Amino acid sequence: MTVRVRFAPAPSGEMHVGNARTALFDWLFARHHGGVMILRIEDTDQERVTDEAITGVQESLRWLGIDWDEGPGVGGDHGPYRQMERLDLYREVTDRLLQQGDAYRCYCTPEELEERRKRALERGERPGYDGRCRELDEQERAAFEAEGRPLAIRFATPERDVTFEDLVRGEATFRGPDVTDFVILRSNGLPTYLLAAAVDDWKMEMTHVIRGEDLFSSTPRQILLLEAVGAERIPAYGHLPLIVGPDRAPLSKRHGAVAVERFREEGFLPEALVNYLALLGWSYDDHTTFFAREELIERFDLSRVSHNPAAFDREKLEWMNGHYIRESSDERLADLATQFLKDAGVSADRDVVLRAVPLIKERMKLLSEAVDFLRFLFEDPEPDEKARAQIEGSEDYLREVADRLEGLEGWSAAAIEEVLRGLKEERELGSKKAFQPVRAAVTGTLISPPLFESIELLGRERTLARLRAAARG
Hints:
Helicase, Ruva Protein, domain 3; 11 strands; Rossmann fold; 4 domains; 20 helices
């Protein structure tokens, strides 16, 4: 049996890291088993899903390195891969269920349903559809249709328990009375998620459905639907634990960045985010943190996925990103840092950035930090408050530094260091008193790459000009 899994988002905005984690686990499972990864777009909610968001999901997946074997832009034998292009299929299946007696027309209005729901709650009963339209006779149906009532199609759930083996949670049983009749086709002719996802999983020959825990309760309904249409195989289901914030509430924008694109813009590397997401709910052992992509594929197993919610730790992600920055080549970092500088409006020279990368790569947790670290190389800085405090009262000292450096024959970090350390000894200054005013005058901040190398990169002319400008006050 060839493993076939799918990632099936309903894109209405930027891609949440929870969806990215689901896509990653689907992809790892498929690649581990030599199977097929399908991207399917669930776009029947026309008020929320946008073409821009659909494109964004694909771009985020590609940035993360998650490719698909069937789906938009790739094709395949089981398309189309957008649900709005499969409406005839859902209506055909609905008609079949109606003919079999496994579905029926429901004429209940939203107001009537809400009123019955409230009454059930008042009686201490579990709210759910009471089957009112299931036993209508032809005369009652005709009367409702004569009123012009909109109708939906409901699935007639058999009154029996549904048991399945969840690949993450173990055996799960849903009691028959708890699985009430549910809508499969809305009054506007569009399918519900329950119908469309089940039919697509059947027709696209899914062997496994790996998705978020929030969809766990939909599983018995979809199993019953698949049984009713005579599906040759019911997929194996696995439900991944929720991702929560530090307060243990579901991860949302109130916890900070939660979208893949935002993490990309902040300067995270894709391999860092992939590695971190893989560890949200899954672990190989108690001591391994960093995994190459090939190692994740080789070692991934759903049996190692936790049942408990996974806490999103921003600090750990940044720490991991710093590791991957240090592991990256200077050439790659120069390309990325140059782009960040340009996006920030800085006319950066890539060759200069390449020379500066070794000075900052050990200090960065985010690529975006390159902007603050290196801006002084391309723009005359306006000293910040802390830098101004260091410059004030040091004007005579900065003037002498400029005079000493002006006399250098060769402009190198070693020669610059020798001059500045010599002056430090002559004046019997500590390192802070000797070097921080110089750093403040040259870079405009007290946080910069190593001082002597920074001055070398900046060049003689601009260094002397900044020192003398600071000395003038």
